[in-house]
Design goal:
Elements: E1 4-8, H1 11-15, H2 18-27, H3 37-46, E2 52-61, E3 64-78, E4 81-87, E5 100-101, H4 106-120, E6 124-133, H5 137-142, E7 148-160, H6 165-170, H7 174-188, E8 194-198, H8 204-217, H9 219-222, H10 231-246, E9 250-257, E10 260-270, E11 273-281, H11 290-303, E12 310-312, E13 326-336, H12 340-356, H13 359-368
Parallel strand pairs: 4-6, 11-12
Antiparallel strand pairs: 1-2, 2-3, 3-4, 3-5, 6-13, 7-12, 7-13, 8-9, 9-10, 10-11
Helix pairs in contact: 3-10, 8-10
Length: 370
């Protein structure tokens, strides 16, 4: 079978393959909506900086899309010379993107996608894959090839949806379980106490208004890290919500009482996984642990819905441990051009990683430069 590679670099052209793209994302082992056209088209529209450009390498076999590699090219300067660094799309609001390859075709397609990206950007020397899920078939295939460096990045947390919520709660520590029970007893006595999930496309704007408002009311608002803290960030999330809702994937969760939103989740139900992307709560009600309560209600909700196999936090925060979450590894890897210059860049990166991991050098830095 002959594989044909094409480069697409505008929103209209990638929209034409959006259904094929999203189908590949749904079939992938990642179970992540971040890999979809519905997500990344909004990223390309809203999150590309002035020193960057984006394009998508698409692999076809007999006019069927079998592979997709979204690329961001960033201009860098070294010794007065300009070169390009290629990477997957990503920032603080989009993480763990990966190439998509039809299962079983990794050997035929994955390196070809990267080679096409290199040839499209002749001044590039390397391709950085940041925080890729270890379940990635392409990662498993590419990581052992020559001119490739890999490094563990961090773990990501998730909960397998329990068949029995009582058994799940019994597995939590006694103190934490008692605290959640006490908080819930206070909550249910409040006027209009309710947990609900809203996945109605027509309610998207109203749902986002509520989520943004409750997030801004808490510590994220004070720290200027809330969605509403930057116009560009809010625009990105509102467009993202519309895009995900149009696919039927957006899932907004609310903990409500006394005609106020106590806690809210911006989540995405995708490929039998519920990804909690943004969670926030109203600090005025922190005595009843609204963040903990909304998670408890969500786990119970998932136990009653057969279309949800897991609740995915994806990140690695301290509070995840309280919920007895499972973890999976995420890895970084770099692919270099098979040239002398590519080899030099690869060796420089290896030395950099080696020095960064040196206990001796860390000790010197902490002693003399902290």
């Amino acid at each position: 079978m002959t594989v044909i590679y094409k480069v697409l670099n505008n929103l209209d052209s990638i929209k034409e393959i959006s259904c094929c793209w999203d189908n590949l994302a749904e079939e992938s082992p990642h179970k992540s909506p971040v890999l979809s056209h519905a997500w990344l088209s909004v990223f390309f529209e809203c999150r590309i900086s002035v020193d960057q450009k984006w394009f998508v390498v698409v692999a076809y076999i007999n006019d069927t899309v079998v592979g997709i590699l979204p690329v961001v090219s960033t201009s860098k300067r070294l010794l007065g010379l300009t070169y390009k660094v290629l990477s997957l799309p990503g920032d603080d609001h989009t993480i763990s993107v990966d190439m998509l390859v039809k299962v079983g075709l990794e050997e035929q397609v994955s390196l070809g996608l990267i080679d096409k990206a290199f040839s499209h950007e002749p001044r590039s020397r390397s391709f950085f894959f940041h925080r890729v899920d270890s379940c990635s078939n392409s990662y498993t295939y590419n990581v052992n090839k020559s001119f490739v460096i890999s490094q563990f990045c961090e773990d990501g947390a998730f909960i397998t949806s329990p068949e029995n919520i009582s058994d799940f709660r019994a597995g939590l520590t006694r103190n934490f379980r008692l605290n959640i029970n006490k908080a819930n007893n206070k909550f249910i006595k409040m006027n209009g106490a309710n947990f609900y999930v809203n996945e109605n496309h027509s309610d998207t704007k109203n749902n986002m208004d509520k989520i943004i408002a409750v997030e801004s009311s808490g510590w994220k608002g004070e720290a200027n890290t809330a969605i509403a803290s930057a116009i560009g960030t809010e625009m990105f999330y509102r467009k993202l919500a519309d895009s995900l809702a149009a696919k039927g994937w957006l899932s907004c969760h609310f903990l409500e009482a006394e005609e106020k939103i106590l806690a809210a989740n911006f989540s995405i139900k995708f490929s039998h996984s519920m990804l909690i992307w943004k969670t926030s709560y109203n600090d005025k009600y922190k005595k009843i642990s609204p963040g903990g309560l909304i998670m408890d209600y969500l786990v119970e909700y998932s136990s009653h819905h057969l279309d949800i196999d897991r609740i995915d936090a994806m990140s690695n925060d301290e509070w995840h441990k309280k919920w007895n979450m499972s973890y999976r590894a995420f890895n970084n890897y770099w692919v270099y051009k098979k040239t002398i210059v590519g080899f030099i860049f690869m060796m420089c990166q290896k030395i950099k990683l080696m020095l960064k991991g040196s206990e001796v050098l860390r000790g010197i830095k902490n002693r003399f430069f902290s």
